[in-house]
Amino acid sequence: MAMEEKDETDSLETSDPARIRLIALALGGEVRLRMLGLLSSGSRNMNEIASALGLPLSTATVNVRRLEEAGLVECRPAPGARGTQKIVSRKYGRLVLGLPSPGGEGARVIDMPIGHFVKAEVAAPCGICTAESRLGKKDDPRAFFFPERHAAELIWLSTGFVEYHFPNIADGAEPPSGLSLSAELCSEVPFYDNSATSDICLWINGVEIGTWRSPGDFGGRRGRLTPAWWGVHKTQFGRLVTWTVTESGSRIESDGVVGSSHAALRDLRLAEAPYIAVRLGVDPGAERPGGMNIFGRGFGDFAQGLVLRVR
């Protein structure tokens, strides 16, 4: 097949510990390093990768999946001579990993289960799953008010928001120097569509921190943590997104796509309440209002809920 040239100026910068762990695991195998080298010249299908590296197809598939879980390659279906084939592309030519620093050692961290929201305004299509089953009927907003929602591991909605109240772990004696919120997210459409974009926004204490444009509602392979009973024709995993707020402004990071806003730490008025209000949502008036999936520890690729860090 004709190979698609890869722009080696593409780079990934991340300091998120969960993302760094996945990348480190992916880069720890000689086979996967050879795959990344092979893909530097362009996209290839699975048979071409296996043949070029002298591997059984099953071994090549397992290793490509590990690279995909770390976000280092992208897989897409394409017509083949005998049905559908999987095309694999390298996403980045450069990695910049932010390692722990003395300023990060004092960070206070809370991993909030995604079902522990205190407020929700949602519209169908919407729903909630625990690790064992779906709550309520299909596209029924009442499921967001069932007591069982606290065990949620996957939440999806087309418009609206969910809001969480984190205990205010900022130390009044020593004002925080930064705050970050990370979550595994993607767009929401029926079944899945890897190219369905959506604008997903974060507000903290009523202040808009920034909007992340999700590139898709992801499927086509099972999420690393997604339970077997959840059909493979449905949404399977998301992207790890991190919003960071400091006194100099805000930053959004996901797979090397970084945005920023003017919201600063002082705008959040952290000292004024015993909790920090965190709201994730999709505004129907957004440029691309494509819904939202939120993944917990038991769905998707990342074993976490909503992680708040205060430095």
3D structure, described in words:
The chain has 311 residues and is of the alpha+beta class. The protein is globular, with a radius of gyration of 20 Å. 15% of the residues lie in helices and 36% in strands. It has two domains: 11-97, Arc Repressor Mutant, subunit A (Orthogonal Bundle); 102-310, Jelly Rolls. The model is unreliable at 1-9 (pLDDT under 50). A hairpin with a 2-residue loop joins strand 14 and strand 15.
Summarize this structure as a short list of keywords or feature phrases:
15% helix, nine-stranded antiparallel beta sheet, 311 residues, five-stranded antiparallel beta sheet, alpha+beta, Jelly Rolls, Arc Repressor Mutant, subunit A, 19 strands
Count of runs of 4 or more consecutive helical residues: 5
Structural class: alpha+beta
User: Could you say how many structural domains there are in total?
Assistant: 2
Give the SSE order as H and E letters: EHHEHHEEEHEEEEEEEEEEEEEE
Mean pLDDT: 89
Short summary:
With 311 residues, the chain is α+β, with helices and mostly antiparallel strands.
Question: What are the SSEs and their pairings?
Answer:
Layout: E1 11-14, H1 17-27, H2 30-39, E2 44-45, H3 46-53, H4 57-69, E3 73-80, E4 83-90, E5 94-97, H5 102-105, E6 108-112, E7 119-123, E8 127-129, E9 154-157, E10 159-167, E11 178-186, E12 198-204, E13 207-214, E14 239-246, E15 249-254, E16 257-261, E17 275-282, E18 292-295, E19 306-310
Parallel strand pairs: 1-5
Antiparallel strand pairs: 2-4, 3-4, 6-19, 7-10, 8-9, 9-18, 10-17, 11-14, 11-18, 11-19, 12-13, 12-17, 14-15, 15-16
Helix pairs in contact: 1-4, 3-4
